[in-house]
Each structure stands twice: as C-alpha cells, then as structure tokens.
Design goal:
The structure holds 2 protein chains of 2 kinds.
Chain A lengths: L1 H18 L7 E8 L4 E5 L1 E4 L13 E5 L3 E11 L6 E13 L14 E11 L4 E10 L3 E10 L8 E11 L1
Parallel strand pairs in A: 4-10
Antiparallel strand pairs in A: 1-2, 1-5, 3-10, 5-8, 6-7, 6-9, 9-10
Chain B lengths: L17 H4 L6 H21 L9 E10 L6 E7 L2 E3 L10 E5 L4 E9 L6 E13 L14 E11 L4 E8 L5 E10 L6 E11 L1
Parallel strand pairs in B: 4-10
Antiparallel strand pairs in B: 1-2, 1-5, 3-10, 5-8, 6-7, 6-9, 9-10
The chains are: A mainly beta, B mainly beta.
Chain lengths: 171, 202
C-alpha cells in the first residue's frame, strides 16, 4: 500500500518534471447560479496554494439575492485550456455553506451549515471539460457561500488553483 | 443483486474540504468511513452471490438519513448499493426509508468506476428524488414533474474515478418518492444505478 502510494507520487513527480507544473491558467470556470427572478455568472479566479499574505483582503464576491423557499439552479463548467498537458487527478469540488456575512472567507472545515457538497475526480486533457447542474432549495434565510474549486498535484509551491465563488443572500 | 439495507446510528461524516486539506485526497476520508465497509460487502458478495448477478463496473454507496433538528445529528440511515440495468432490480429488495413531511433529510452517494479498461468520454452521473405513483414502482418517473431535487455531472470516466454528492433536502408533501443515482452514456450494454424508496407521511 505504502509502495503503491509512493509509486503514484513518484509517477506524478516524474510527469510534472517532464511536462511542467499545472497552472491556474490551464482552466476556465463558469459558475452560473439562477434563482426564480435573477441569476449571476462568475468565472475563474486563482488561489495560491500557500497561505495568503498577512493582511491580504479577499476579492469582493458577486452576490445573488433570493427569497427563502426559492429553488436555485447551479451550473458549472470547468474546461482545460492547457495547450498540451494533461492535468491528472483533478478534484472538482463544489459546496454551498452558510456563513455569517457576505464576503466571509470559506470556512476551514465543512462540518456544519452545509446545504450541498459535491466532488468528482477526472484527468483533463487539452479542451476536456466537466460539467455539473444541480438544483437546490434554500428554505432558510441567511448568507450562503457557493464555491467551485479545484485541487491537483503541484510541484510548484506558488502554483495557483482556480476557483469561482459567489455569495447567496436569502431574505 | 447486492442491495443491502441497514439502519445504524452513525457518526456525522462529511466529504472533507480539500481547500483546507490541500490534497487531492478527498476520497481517502471515505476509505475509512465508506469504502472499507463497501469492500467488506463486496467480499461477502463474492461468497454468496452468483457471478452473473453481480454488477462489476461500478461501486455505488447511496444513503439517506434524517437530521435531528435540535442536535444536528444524523440518524436512521438507509443505504443501497449498486445494481445494473439491464436486468434491473428485484423490486422487493429495494430499500425503503420512512420520513415525515417537512423533516430535514440528507442524501449522499459515492460512485466509484471500477471498469478497468480505459477512459469513457462524457459519461453522465445523475441523481434525483422524484415523486412516484407507488412504492417499488418499476418504471423510473418522468423527471419533468414531481422532482424534489436533482443533479447531474458530466465527466470523462476513467478507471477508479469517483463522483459524490451530499445534499440536505426536505419533502413537503406526503407520498411515495424515489431516490436514485444512475450512470448514463457509458457506451456499454448496461448502466449502473442504486435506488431507495422514500415513504413520506404526515
């Protein structure tokens, strides 16, 4: 088992050494959230895999307002725009979680207030894409963070992982 | 046919947050929580089930549970494992879950592709909760009406890839409902699915 894990890691390192590290600009993300009366679409940003610099402020998030009891439709598309490389074992992770106020950072653990969480793994060759479409009824007022994020193996400590996010305000 | 039903008090579990973990090891968490029990089930299946009756190209762990609104704890879980279509399921063995109208519920599934021979493009994995005319209904209801919640994913389906979801939901109207997760467009002579009936009472 251990040998298998190390073997896999070694394979990834060799692959990355051969083809270069995966970078944020290898993917585009479209995250579209539609309520009964309005919708918002947000696109990929990039998150450093290391800790944020001290005092760094997160970029203001887009906001969509709905009423309690509304059903929203969430559509996302993650597309590889890498010219040649295959990005292996990309984890595509989406969640909707209650937060205290708009703009709050994602909670470190998704252990409470999670309405919806999904994940899939896939290798992305150039132009490959993955899509998701989800329905979610939000019946309690509050502020919710919706976020699609990716995770994959890097050898570059400064490498960026793309994500797309918005705040949902439920009145 | 490997459908099994069980009710257990279970610890609260989550698909972990890879943002904080910074690893691709999302599903390693499930190895302890879900995959090992699943492997046990598969081993039991090897002993008691005829080879022709097994679905061999996917593992699906589908669960539904209620949430105690005061404590937030999850209880009374019902689970179902993978089947294939054709031939379909023995309806008498479809697990059943009883709920009250408006009660907070959670559905969860993890699907693992165990087909070892290459990648399949644009496979869809769909899950839904939809009203059905009666429990153990043979035909899958039309998803154009009576849908409580649904989701679908499109991905290139490589060996050992996984798809999972965990969603809070409620059913407001009493009646019979079907929770189902299924593969589509796998370019095969059969698809895989897992299903649970939900009986919602006042």
């Amino acid at each position: 088992m251990i040998m298998r894990e190390y073997g896999f890691t070694l394979m990834i390192l060799i692959w990355l050494a051969a083809f270069g590290p995966a970078r944020a600009d290898q993917f585009t993300i479209d995250l579209e959230v539609k309520g009964p009366k309005a919708g918002r679409t947000v696109h990929a940003e990039a998150a450093a895999t290391g800790p944020l610099e001290l005092g760094a402020k997160p970029k203001p998030r887009a906001i969509l307002e709905i009423q309690a009891g509304d059903t929203i439709t969430i559509k996302w598309t993650l597309t590889s725009i890498a010219p040649k490389e295959t990005v292996k074992d990309v984890l595509v992770h989406f969640y909707a979680v209650k937060i205290d106020k708009a703009g709050d950072r994602p909670p470190p653990k998704l252990d409470k207030g999670v309405l919806l969480e999904t994940a899939l793994t896939m290798d992305f060759k150039p132009k490959d894409k993955s899509e998701g479409e989800l329905n979610l009824l939000v019946d309690k007022a509050g502020v919710y963070l919706l976020r699609l994020e990716t995770s994959f193996k890097h050898v570059d400590a400064e490498a960026l992982e793309p994500f797309a996010t918005l705040d949902l305000i439920v009145r | 046919m490997t459908t099994k039903t069980r009710r257990t008090q279970r610890e609260k579990s989550e698909i972990p947050n890879p943002k904080s973990e910074r690893k691709i090891e999302l599903f390693q968490f499930q190895i302890s929580k879900f995959i090992l029990p699943l492997c046990s089930l598969c081993l039991c299946g090897d002993l008691v089930l005829p080879r022709s009756a097994r679905a061999e190209h996917a593992i699906i762990d589908l669960r539904i549970m209620r949430v105690d609104s005061r404590t937030g704890k999850e209880t009374d879980e019902v689970s179902a494992s993978v089947l294939q279509e054709p031939p379909g399921e023995n309806l008498d063995q479809r697990p059943q879950f009883k709920a009250k109208a408006g009660e907070p519920l959670i559905l969860q599934f993890i699907l693992t592709n165990t087909y070892p021979h290459g990648e399949k493009k644009d496979v869809r994995v769909r899950y839904f909760v939809v009203r059905e005319n009666k429990l153990k209904q043979k035909t899958v209801p039309d998803l154009r009406e009576g849908v409580v919640t649904q989701g679908r994913f499109t991905l290139n389906y490589k060996p050992k890839c996984r798809v999972g979801a965990r969603q809070s939901f409620t059913i407001k109207e009493p009646g019979s409902y079907l929770l189902r997760v299924q593969t589509e467009n796998t370019d095969s002579d059969h698809e895989h699915f897992s299903a649970i009936d939900i009986l919602v009472e006042k």
